[in-house]
Every structure is written in C-alpha cells, then in structure tokens.
Design a protein that fits this description.
Chain lengths: 262, 272
C-alpha cells in the first residue's frame, strides 16, 4: 500500500436487514493516521455501518476495501489476516465478564498475537496498555467491579492490544461524564499520533466529534443516504443541509425537516 | 371476497408462515450442529481455539456442581418408586420384588431421564442465559472481530463438558436412586439389606447400564446443544435472556423425552 493509498475505502455500500433498507450509496475513504467520524441521528444506521466495516454484517451491495483487498470478497484466510489488524471498542465495551481487565486485554494476544510471546510478556503488555488508559490499579478487577467509563477505557486498551492499523470505536464517549469524555478524546488523538492508525468513530456527541474528527460522513435516516461529507468543523461552517445544520448546532430543525427523523 | 373465504386464506397464510418459521429454525439447528461437528474435528487436530480455564470451569459447574441436586432428586425418585411399588406388590405378597422394580426402573430409565431433566433446568438454562447475556453485551461480536468462532469458544466446551459429565452423573444417580429404594424397602417392608441388594444385583444386566449410559450421553449432548442454540439465537435485550432460558429448558426437556421414547422403541425392536 503506497503512502497516498487510503487505509479504508467504502464504495457504493448498500446496507439492509432483509428487505428493510438501512442506507445505500455510502461511499467514503479513510486516510491513514486520521480520525473519521460517522455521524447522524439515532437509528440512521451508524452502528450498522460499523458492523459492515468490521466484518460482522455482510453488505447487500458494494465494497469495503482494506488496502487492495475487498473484505467481503476475500477468502477466510485473507479476512482473518485483515481482522488481525483491527482494534474494536464496542458501545458497551463488550468486556468478557468472567475475565479480569488484564485477562481481557491479554485475550487478543493469546488468540492472535505473537506465539513466541510468553504469558509474562503478555501480562506486561496488558499492564502497559491499562496504564495508558489510566487503569493500572484496576488490572485484576472484574468488569462488574468498575464503572462504565472505566469499562470503556479497558475496552480501548483491549482494542489496542495488537497495535491495530484500523481502530473502530462505537460511541466511545456515550454515557461518560464531560471530564471522562474529554480525557477519552485526548487519548484517541494521542493514539492517532502515536500509532498512525486509521480511526473510525461512531458518535453523535458534538464536543467529541468536533474535538477529534479529521473527516466524516453524515447519514440520514429519512433519505437513507449520506447527506454530507467532510470534517465536522467544516460541516458546521459550510454545510447548508438544514438537518445537518441543526444537528451540529444542537438546534431543533424546522418541522418539515424533522419529520421522519428521531 | 366473502368473509369466510377471507378467513380461510388468512388462516392458510398463517399456517404457511408458521411452517416456514419452523423450517428456518430447523435450518439453524442443522447449521449449528454442523459447526459443532467441525469444531470437534478442529479440536481433535489441536486447532480449536477456546479458553481452557473457562472450559474447566464449565466442566466443574456442570459435573461436580450438579451433584447436590442430582443426589436429592434421584434419592427421592428411588424412594418414590419403592413406595409405589411396595403398595401394589404387597397386595400380592410379592414385596421382595420391590428391589427388582427399583433397580431396573432406576438404571434403565429414571436415573438417566431425571438427571437429564435436572440438568436441563440447571445447566442448560445456565448455558442459555450466559450466552444470551454475552450476545446482549456484544461479547459474541467481540469474539468474531478477534477472528474466533463463537461455536469453538463458547459452544464446544459446553457441549463436550456436559456430554462427558452426564454419563458420570448418571452412574452416580443410579447408586443414589438404589439407595433411596433401599431406604424405603428396609423401613416399610422390613426387607433385609442383603436381600434388597442381592435381588437388585440379580435383576440388573449389563444391557441396562449400557442403555442408560448411552441415553445419558445423548441427553447430555442435547441439553447442552439446546442451551447453546437458544443462547446464540437470543435477541439483544434483557427480556431476550429470559426467553432464551425458557426455550432452552422447554426444548431440552421435550427433547429428552422424545429421545427416551426413540431409545425405548429401538430397545423393544432389538429385544434389549
């Protein structure tokens, strides 16, 4: 992959649950070392789009390319190789409840990491990552013994376990207090700088998307198509679509624009 | 279109939808069964990926962890068999045949069936609840993004653990059931211990144990499979966990009775 090649290319994606269309004509590119925001109102298909990107849901049509490889046309071995370069933070963190935080972070290393790495080395790396997200003191706690914000950070540490080239974060700051949310934003920017990963974030938290977004796409629940493309700050200044305009300014849109949207 | 004709068409459409829905479930069952068989193949080749600590915990929970309830239920069932048998047999002065009744019924049928029903309500329900909760918490999705098959990681250890533990629990249940029968025989019929145990030994044949153990192997697989299947099919909300658990228990118990009937027919046909 050359330096100018986008890390992720989505082309003509059509997403549907059976006969129910979610979104169509979704196309965008995510540059290496950038934070790409998937925006939109509730129920527009943001998390569904993420599921298509991380291989959990096949598209009805269209392509998802990682480098030169179309994920959904690749054979299982090639998909496996692509997946090993993923780091995913799920909306609810998805920590394994019977494992401690350290064990959760070590799991990707055990399953997909360097086989020569000993258990002690894995533990050491897990502790380093937990320290990075400010959870070094909680390494031996179970997920049900920590707060929602701590779970998110532990989920992020697990997502970073294999030094991913592609980092996917689903609503990372949802449900967090403003200070924790701000810290998480700073952590994401820090990771982008340090790892050079392509970061895809699903969020509708305005402070977060303005703080971290380099580029983005705005999905619409009514037309079932993207209605805006660009960095959130740029969209705030220049996008003239009334719903995007109202959304990014946290305003109530005119009734005819709001109709059909949640 | 007349009202009656419209009603008939609607009823036919509902029937069609019902049949299609059941066919879809059958397809899902076949798919999971195939995946479990492939996962067993990978396990035998040393390529299956699962958490050994979790697998060991499942073995302990579904084996040793079930001893208490298996003991209590089978002890009482053995005692009930002896009590019901004694009331009838005493009328003919054939009280000593209680030992034959209890031993054959326990070893051939009751120990295997009652243990499987207990496991369905206990372990099968626990499997369904655990996996359904993991679905709701996106833990199953997290496994998939790690390139790990949920069937290998979650279903395989559970199915193997319960399939292997159930025959052991069955053997233990036989002993406890016979003990329950002995307690009633000794207390109610004044049957000597020596006579009870010697009549039991005479009445039992190796085929009774083979049949009981074979059934318990099938029951263990079925109960674990039903629990995992309904857990994996669960929706992503709190109510879905309850629904998955109920379905796992109901289908587990119904399946156990159906398989038992099939075994009974086969045993009859083979004159075992």
């Amino acid at each position: 992959m050359s330096a100018n090649t986008p890390a992720i290319v989505v082309h003509g994606l059509r997403m549907a649950y059976g006969s129910k269309l979610i979104q169509e004509e979704v196309s965008f590119e995510v540059a290496k070392g950038s934070v790409f925001i998937i925006m939109g109102g509730s129920g527009c298909g943001k998390s569904t789009l993420l599921k298509h990107l991380i291989g959990l849901m096949p598209p009805a049509a269209g392509q998802v390319l990682y480098g030169d490889h179309d994920y959904w046309l690749a054979d299982e071995a090639a998909r496996d190789a692509i997946r090993r370069r993923f780091g995913v933070l799920f909306q609810g963190a998805a920590l394994f409840s019977t494992m401690t935080l350290a064990e959760n972070v070590m799991l990707p290393m055990k399953l997909n990491g360097d086989r020569r790495q000993s258990a002690a080395e894995q533990r050491e790396r897990a502790e380093t990552l937990l320290e990075l997200v400010g959870l070094s003191a909680a390494a031996d706690l179970l997920p049900n013994e920590i707060s929602g914000g701590m779970k998110k950070r532990a989920g992020l540490a697990r997502a970073l376990a294999l030094e991913p080239e592609y980092l996917f974060l689903d609503e990372p700051s949802a449900g967090l207090d403003p200070i924790s949310s701000r810290k998480l934003d700073e952590l994401i920017l820090d990771l982008r700088e340090r790892t050079g990963a392509a970061v895809v974030v699903v969020t509708h938290e305005l402070p977060s998307l303005f703080a971290i977004g380099d580029d983005g796409i705005f999905l619409d629940a009514v037309s079932k198509r993207p209605i805006a493309r660009g960095a959130p700050k740029q969209l705030l200044e220049s996008c003239d679509h009334p719903f995007v305009h109202a959304f990014l300014r946290r305003e109530v849109p005119p009734e005819d624009v709001e109709d059909g949207r949640e | 279109m007349s009202h009656a004709r419209r009603e008939r068409i609607l009823a036919l459409a509902a029937l069609g939808r019902g049949v299609l829905a059941r066919l879809a479930v059958l397809r899902e069952v076949s798919t999971l069964l195939g995946e479990v068989i492939l996962a067993i193949g990978r396990l035998l080749r040393g390529k299956a990926r699962f958490d050994r600590a979790d697998a060991w915990a499942v073995v302990q929970a579904s084996g040793a962890g079930a001893l208490g309830v298996v003991s209590l239920v089978n002890l009482l069932v053995g005692a009930i068999l002896a009590f019901v048998g004694a009331v009838q047999l005493l009328k003919f002065g054939a009280g000593q045949f209680v030992a034959d009744l209890v031993s054959i019924a326990t070893v051939r049928e009751m120990a295997a069936v009652i243990t499987a029903v207990v496991l369905s309500g206990r372990t099968g329900a626990a499997f369904a609840a655990r996996i359904a909760t993991m679905q709701g918490n996106e833990e199953v999705d997290a496994l998939k993004t790690l390139g790990v098959s949920p069937v290998e990681f979650l279903v395989l250890p559970r199915v193997l653990a319960l399939t292997l533990m159930t025959p052991l629990l069955y053997a233990y249940a036989c002993a406890v059931g016979l003990l329950g029968g002995w307690a009633v025989s000794a207390g109610m019929l004044d049957l000597s211990s020596h006579l009870y145990w010697s009549r039991s030994a005479d009445a039992l044949a190796g085929t009774h144990f083979v049949l009981g153990a074979g059934k318990s192997l099938a029951f263990g697989f079925l109960v674990a499979f039903a629990g995992c299947f309904h857990g994996l099919r669960a929706g992503r909300n709190a109510a879905a966990v309850g629904e998955a658990t109920t379905r796992a228990v109901v289908s587990g118990i119904v399946g156990v009775i159906v398989i038992d009937a099939v075994f009974a027919l086969c045993a009859y046909a083979l004159d075992v």
